[in-house]
Design goal:
The complex is a heterodimer of chains A (389) and B (506). With 389 residues, chain A is an alpha/beta fold. Chain A contains 10 helices and 17 strands. Chain A folds into 2 domains: 197 residues, 3-Layer(bba) Sandwich (FAD/NAD(P)-binding domain); 152 residues, D-Amino Acid Oxidase, Chain A, domain 2 (2-Layer Sandwich), CATH 3.30.9. In chain A, strands 1, 2, 6, 7, 8, 9, 16 and 17 form an 8-stranded mixed β-sheet that branches. In chain A, strands 10, 12, 13, 14 and 15 form a 5-stranded antiparallel β-sheet that branches. Among the domains of chain B are: 175 residues, FAD/NAD(P)-binding domain, CATH 3.50.50.60; 133 residues, FAD/NAD(P)-binding domain, CATH 3.50.50.60; 29 residues, no CATH class. Chain B starts with 17 loop residues before the first strand and ends in a 36-residue tail after the last helix. β15 of chain A pairs antiparallel with β22 of chain B, so a sheet runs across the interface. The structure holds flavin-adenine dinucleotide (2 copies).
């Protein structure tokens, strides 16, 4: 491979967003090159809950349409499984499911209310205390780690190139257009650039005078040993998101996040904390019969967040050949659709299947400089304790 | 005034259950000594050791590969505690010296404060004693966690009776609860010769010590001792299969090897035994240090990945030190820093005799061929088509070998023993497949809890009101779940007030 050879479209970031965009472009016959500073999917894209149920997003319908086809389209398994069950341990939680079901119904997606008995038939380990739940005939989960690799391999099968261990250090602009990128492995020219670098998107674009307001945060999950498969893997509730994997493990997350310094080291350290005990507690509350199941691991991922919690998917006015895609913590499930949207923005300047006006960058034009402080999106004050050493 | 995001971690952890001045983890020789020294220096010291172990954990080969060869006595916790104390006089001495000795107490995680975990102060330590789980804050933690055994795969390695040398030693000497009678030892380095001698002295019949090479790996004096005791050293042999029945191993099938390490036709030999002991290498127990983020390096002559320590035994994590076998187990012979010659030779011999279709990761039924083929697990029924061509060679075209990446794809190391039985074999296979030294394979990650503990035990029973009140399934950003058609309307940003939040949005 000629490493310093550029491509028609260079994509910065080999997470699900960048890889899906590359795949859609490659499918359309466009020459693509993905530059990834680490290994594909090494950040949030390979460390998330795998949920694919974003009923509030303009990309939702396309997400739902595409997921059931992804294994076939990509040619590699994603472990996608459709449908979800939400468990309500109290009437208040039931109300929230009803709200969600109502929104989805408006788009033609159907849900069924479950009484306590029906719920336990579907998911025997669920608490006796559950008042009921909802079965959504939409949504689902996939295995993030398999999915990132599936995208990457599918890109290569279509002739796209992926260069790992190659960090982009600068974006070269001339005459109102991006001309190429400087990297730790040389310069790569391009006719169009996609920046899908997760939490690093801001740092990469700041030198161009483009402000993408993002704050990184750390979130944690736990996984248990396998237990007998429930009729449906996607059972969650009690303030947890997650799934029973095809293998039978319970993989769940939720609860408080830690805001990180936006100028902190990259790649980030991803420590876990005693939060795993709170996750364990919530999981036992949800599945009391699984109290004996052993926790095998906990892990953390670092996530990008915009001020309103919604993605930025936008082709900018200047430089005119630059497209930005950062997903604000809901990017895994949406990736089949977000990548397609990015590909259309790159090729045609607009997305043909969804109205992305709410995801434009310009909505943050009047953001106060201290927006992080105003929201409290700043790292914790150091806790006091005994001195170490 | 400082605004705090009520959904963020700030201020949500409960106060720790206790504060410890010096915590020593592991009450082997190294831990007992470290505890005595700290106490002599005037510190108040807690010396914790996970033994006697939960028998259910022993059954999972955690933390050592007990191979199901413990007898019923291990069910009696009190009796085991007595035996452990009798077996190690240093424990009684520590107690006399005013040290707070806690047996049956496991440290399952150490969480240091850092730029990415600022809600924690100093070193937060997770402890459990089988009934209770709690957190402590420690000023200084000394890890004296010892070592576990390198396990390699062969046909029948999942039968009861396949044990590790350190597990056997614990059952013989600390628990006096070894259920086997006839032992075959794999490996003739110090580990193997010592465990053979110890077993013989404890009244176990040693059927032989298997060595693929032309001569014993260990030092001359141990070789002489083995000869004196009349124990059979089977050089130029390797195991083919652990044969047996439901109760476990009944014999070992061996193959003779030629000078080049190839299997000699007609050189098979059957050795009756109920236990096959892997004594090829000891691997430092670095899991707590690794999960805490301490700097590590590979040093094959010290048993693999070991902590980077300063002259005082301090790791890169403030307040965290390491001593004893956990800091490195010296090999019998010098070697290049990246190499791990004796395990490499054993794996080569086992591949020569048993091929690739034998277990690597037993928990997840991953074979050596699956690792090298980067095959997805069989239950996905997705091994044909383009994925069949996506083997290690193809993956290496995209970047250097990475064990965590292969683990994600094959599940090797993802199981209930937390990778204790396959971690090194997987790394050695990747090194072979990539044609690089084992030291070039980045360490697969370790994570808390470093023992597989039940959900109900780990569950926080002291959850704070702030944790309850500020809990959300995701970030709790009020505008995040606004359906796109409501964006910009007065319904935008109502969050929970619009019946949204807390669950089911990802
Ligand atoms: C614990 C957890 C649970 C989650 N659960 C869900 C869920 O259930 N459903 C869901 O939809 N979403 C979930 N998410 C969010 C989701 O994972 C992210 O929104 C999504 O992965 C973002 O993908 P991305 O490709 O945009 O960014 P990333 O995954 O962050 O990828 C960006 C890539 O760019 C690379 N990069 C950065 N800088 C450079 C540079 N200078 N040069 C080259 N490369 C660079 C990085 O190495 C990285 O690989 C979860 C996240 C976490 C952490
Ligand atoms: C088979 C065998 C071969 C040997 N070969 C040699 C040799 O060649 N040369 C030599 O000098 N010595 C040898 N020895 C002796 C041995 O290597 C060391 O002297 C000694 O075992 C190491 O002492 P330690 O205190 O570091 O670890 P150990 O004696 O192993 O003690 C560690 C203790 O910590 C406990 N522990 C670990 N993690 C946790 C946790 N998270 N929470 C609570 N408790 C925990 C363990 O269960 C264990 O009880 C051998 C011993 C054996 C059994």
């Amino acid at each position: 491979m000629d490493e310093t050879k550029g491509a028609a479209v260079v994509i910065v970031g080999g997470g699900v967003t960048g890889l899906s965009a590359a795949w859609w472009l490659a499918r359309a016959g466009v020459e693509v090159l993905v530059l990834e500073s680490g290994i594909v999917g090494w950040e949030a894209s390979g460390r998330n809950g795998g949920g694919c149920t974003h009923y509030y997003s303009p990309l939702f319908q396309e997400e739902q349409r595409l997921w059931p086809q992804m294994d076939r389209l990509l040619g590699y398994p994603t472990e996608y499984r459709r449908f979800r069950v939400g468990v309500a341990l109290n009437p208040g939680q039931m109300v929230r499911y009803d709200t969600v079901a109502g929104h989805a119904a408006r788009l033609g997606f159907h849900s069924t209310r479950l009484d306590a008995k029906e719920l336990r038939e579907l998911a025997p380990p669920v608490s006796e205390a559950a008042v009921g739940g909802v079965f959504s005939h939409f949504g689902g989960h996939a295995n993030p780690q398999r999915t990132v690799q599936a995208y990457a391999w599918a890109v290569q099968d279509l002739g796209g190139r992926i260069l790992q261990n190659c960090a982009v250090t600068g974006i070269e602009v001339g005459g109102g257009r991006v001309r190429g990128v400087a990297t730790t492995r040389g310069r790569f020219g391009c006719e169009a650039l996609v920046v899908a670098a997760g939490p690093r998107t801001s740092a990469l674009l700041a030198p161009l005078g483009i402000d993408v307001p993002l704050t990184p945060a750390r979130a944690e999950m736990i996984v248990t040993a396998p237990l007998p498969a429930m009729a449906l893997g996607g059972v969650d509730g009690n303030g947890l998101y997650g799934r029973q994997t095809l293998r039978g493990n319970l993989a769940y997350g939720g609860g408080p996040h830690e805001w990180l310094d936006p100028d902190g080291a990259w790649p980030p350290r991803r420590p876990t904390t005693p939060l795993l005990r709170n996750l364990a507690r919530r999981l036992v509350e949800l599945f009391p019969k699984a109290g004996h199941v052993r926790v095998l691991r906990s892990w953390a991922g670092v996530i990008e967040n915009t001020p309103d919690g919604r993605p930025v998917i936008d082709r900018l006015a200047e430089p005119a050949n630059l497209t930005v895609a950062t997903m604000s913590s809901v990017g895994f499930g949406l990736s089949p659709a977000s990548g397609k949207a990015v590909a259309q923005l790159v090729q045609d300047g607009r997305c043909h299947f969804a109205d992305l006006s709410s995801l434009r960058l310009e909505r943050f034009a009047n953001l106060p400089r201290d927006w992080r402080e105003r929201r409290g999106w700043v790292p914790p004050e150091p806790a006091d304790g005994v001195a170490v050493g | 005034m400082r605004v705090v995001d009520e959904k963020a971690i700030d201020g949500k952890f409960p106060a720790v259950g206790e504060t410890i001045d010096v915590l020593v983890v592991g009450a082997g020789d190294a831990g007992c000594q470290a505890a005595r020294e700290a106490a002599a220096g005037g510190a108040s010291v807690v010396l914790a050791d996970e033994n006697p172990l939960d028998p259910a954990l022993m059954g999972l080969d955690v933390p050592l590969a007990f191979g199901g060869r413990m007898d019923g006595a291990v069910q009696n916790r009190e009796r085991m505690t007595e035996r452990l104390v009798l077996a190690r006089p240093a424990l009684a001495e520590a107690y006399e010296a005013g040290i707070d000795v806690r047996l049956g107490t496991t440290i399952w995680g150490i969480f240091p404060e850092s730029a990415e975990s600022r809600a924690l102060a100093g070193l937060t330590v997770g402890l459990e004693d089988g009934r209770r789980c709690w957190m402590a804050r420690a000023r200084r933690v000394v890890l004296a966690t010892g070592a576990r055994d390198l396990m390699l795969g062969f046909a029948g390695c999942d039968r009861p009776g396949v044990i590790g040398a350190r597990a056997l030693d614990a059952l013989l000497h600390r628990y006096q609860a070894f259920a086997g009678r006839r032992l075959l030892v794999l490996g003739s380095g110090s580990e193997g010769l010592r465990v053979a001698i110890a077993a013989h002295r404890a009244g176990v019949t040693v059927a032989g010590i298997v060595e693929p090479g032309a001569q014993a790996e260990g030092p001359a004096e141990l070789v002489a001792e083995v000869a004196e005791l009349g124990l059979a050293l089977l050089t130029r042999y390797v195991l083919v299969e652990a044969a047996g029945n439901a109760e476990g191993v009944t014999s070992a099938r061996l193959a003779a090897l030629d000078d080049e390490g190839r299997v000699l036709a007609g050189g098979e030999r059957e050795v009756g035994c109920d236990t096959i002991c892997l004594a090829i290498a000891a691997v430092p127990a670095i899991e707590l240090a690794a999960a805490a983020g301490a700097a590590l390096r590979f040093e094959g002559t010290l048993g693999g990945h070991v902590p980077v320590l300063d002259e005082a035994g301090r790791t890169s994590v403030g307040g965290l030190e390491m001593v004893g076998a956990a800091a490195g187990v010296p090999a019998d012979h010098p070697a290049a820093p990246d190499a791990w010659p004796y395990p490499e030779r054993w794996l080569a011999a086992l591949i020569a005799s048993g091929g690739l279709e034998v277990p690597c990761c037993r928990c997840e039924s991953v074979t050596r061929a699956d690792v090298l083929g980067v095959r997805p697990p069989a239950y996905l029924e997705a091994r044909s088509g383009p994925i069949a061509a996506r083997d290690l060679g193809r993956l290496l075209a995209d970047g250097p070998p990475n064990q965590d990446q292969v683990k994600r794809l094959t599940r090797s190391g993802m199981g209930e023993c937390q990778g204790r039985r396959c971690r090194e074999q997987t790394a050695l296979l990747l090194a072979r497949g990539a044609g690089v030294a084992p030291g070039r394979i980045p360490l697969a990650s370790y994570r808390a809890p470093v023992r597989p503990l039940p959900l109900a035990l780990l569950a926080d029973d002291a959850e704070t009101e702030a944790m309850r009140a500020g809990w959300d399934a995701w970030f709790g950003i009020p505008t995040q779940w606004t359906p796109w058609w409501d964006i910009g309307t007065e319904r935008d940003g109502l969050g929970r007030d619009a019946g949204l939040g807390d669950t089911w949005h990802l």
